[in-house]
TrEMBL record:
Signal peptide: none annotated. PANTHER family: PTHR40261, RIESKE DOMAIN-CONTAINING PROTEIN (PTHR40261:SF1). Residues 7-91 form the Rieske domain. InterPro entries: Rieske_2Fe-2S, Rieske_2Fe-2S_sf. It comes from the Bacteria. SUPFAM superfamilies: ISP domain. It comes from Halomonas chromatireducens. This is Rieske [2Fe-2S] domain protein. One of its GO terms (molecular function) is 2 iron, 2 sulfur cluster binding. The keyword Secreted does not apply. Gene3D superfamilies: Rieske [2Fe-2S] iron-sulphur domain. Coiled coil: none annotated. Pfam families: Rieske (PF00355).
């Protein structure tokens, strides 16, 4: 039986050292890819407070300092590596993680595929 090809969702080159990118996955989920200090994480694009999308403008997910993910609806702040809310009405809750990996060619793909 042949292995199933990985689902490539983006390329590493699409993200700067500190950047974020919103994507719509083939399975219907809206996700955000975020890289802060070169580490890539991915989360479902939904605030745990009210279930709304995190951004007000396309691909604007980080606060002004570029260190934390920010919900545009109410200003909640989330750690980019764990998705934990560290400020705001959902403090202590987490964004839903999406497992991704980066292959040798710089393709960001859903992990486990």
């Amino acid at each position: 039986m042949s292995p199933v090809p990985a689902t490539i969702i983006a390329r590493r080159a699409q993200l700067d050292a500190t950047s974020a990118l919103g994507l719509h996955l083939p399975d219907g989920r809206d996700v955000l890819l975020v890289t802060v200090h070169g580490k890539i994480s991915a989360f479902v694009n939904r605030c745990p407070h009210q279930g709304v999308a995190l951004q007000a403008e396309p691909n604007v997910f980080l606060e002004a300092g570029g260190e934390l993910i920010q919900c545009a609806m109410h200003g909640a702040l989330f750690l980019p590596d764990t998705g934990e809310c560290v400020f705001g009405p959902c403090q202590g809750r987490h964004l839903e993680p999406v497992a991704v990996s980066v292959d040798a060619e710089g393709n960001i793909q859903l992990a486990g595929e």
